[in-house]
Write a structure and sequence with these properties.
Blueprint (H helix, E strand, L loop, with lengths): L3 E5 L5 H11 L3 E5 L7 H6 L7 E6 L2 E6 L1 H11 L12 H24 L16 H12 L12 H16 L6 H11 L2 H18 L2
Parallel strand pairs: 1-2
Antiparallel strand pairs: 1-3, 3-4
Helix pairs in contact: 1-3, 1-6, 1-8, 3-6, 4-5, 4-6, 6-7
């Protein structure tokens, strides 16, 4: 049995976890979830029926991890030799931007896609404030840092970078030089290329029936 069982679907956020798995060189078995016929094993792992879901078979126990940001960090922690976890002085930036992407960026992009507007005068009640403020804040950081933690790639870049990469491809975030340069650096990584090739092949196979 592989160390990890990885429930995913190529048309999903599962791509983020796939990239993370390849960055750390994890021993995993992918299980493609059929949206119309979700297995009992998958629903036991995540009753919400969402992917990705990761099951770590370790020490006689099955540890279930869901939510992409959590999966990314869990893989970095369980693969210390990958060097993708933050050092003592990188933790503040690492966790700040990991959760900034999981919170304000995710909320801002989804709200705009759904056509939801924060009522005037209520920006302070919204976790992301406004779409423009969120994007400007992220741009400001990436304009002066090659990666989330400075000049070194960490697992936080898988998660933050996935939002930027996806957003540029599908127009859900604005095209800005800092975002384009950041995405370019990430797309050159072997882990990114390997995971993208797998995901792309599965999408093509599903579309060709």
């Amino acid at each position: 049995m592989a160390d990890f069982t990885f429930y995913t679907n190529p048309m999903s956020r599962g791509w983020i976890a796939w990239w993370a798995l390849h960055e750390v060189g994890a021993d995993y078995e992918p299980v493609i979830v059929d949206w119309a016929a979700k297995s009992e094993a998958f629903l036991a792992a995540n009753p919400m029926g969402k992917v990705p879901a990761l099951v770590h078979h370790h020490g006689g126990h099955d540890h279930v991890v869901t939510e992409c940001a959590a999966i990314c960090h869990y893989l970095a922690e369980t693969h210390p030799d990958s060097g993708l976890q933050p050092s003592e002085h990188e933790k503040a930036d690492y966790f700040r931007w990991l959760f900034f992407a999981a919170g304000p960026v995710e909320q801002a992009v989804l709200s705009r896609a759904m056509g939801w507007e924060v009522p005037e005068g209520r920006n302070v009640m919204a976790g992301f404030g406004s779409f423009d403020l969120t994007m400007d804040t992220l741009k400001g950081w990436l304009s002066t840092h090659d990666f989330v933690c400075g000049d070194r790639f960490t697992m936080a870049d898988v998660y933050v970078g996935s939002h930027v990469d996806w957003g540029l491809q599908f127009g859900s975030i604005p095209t800005r030089p800092a975002f384009e340069a950041y995405a370019k650096r990430l797309r050159e990584r072997d882990g990114y290329k390997e995971a993208k090739a797998i995901d792309t092949k599965l999408i093509e196979e599903s579309q060709n029936g």
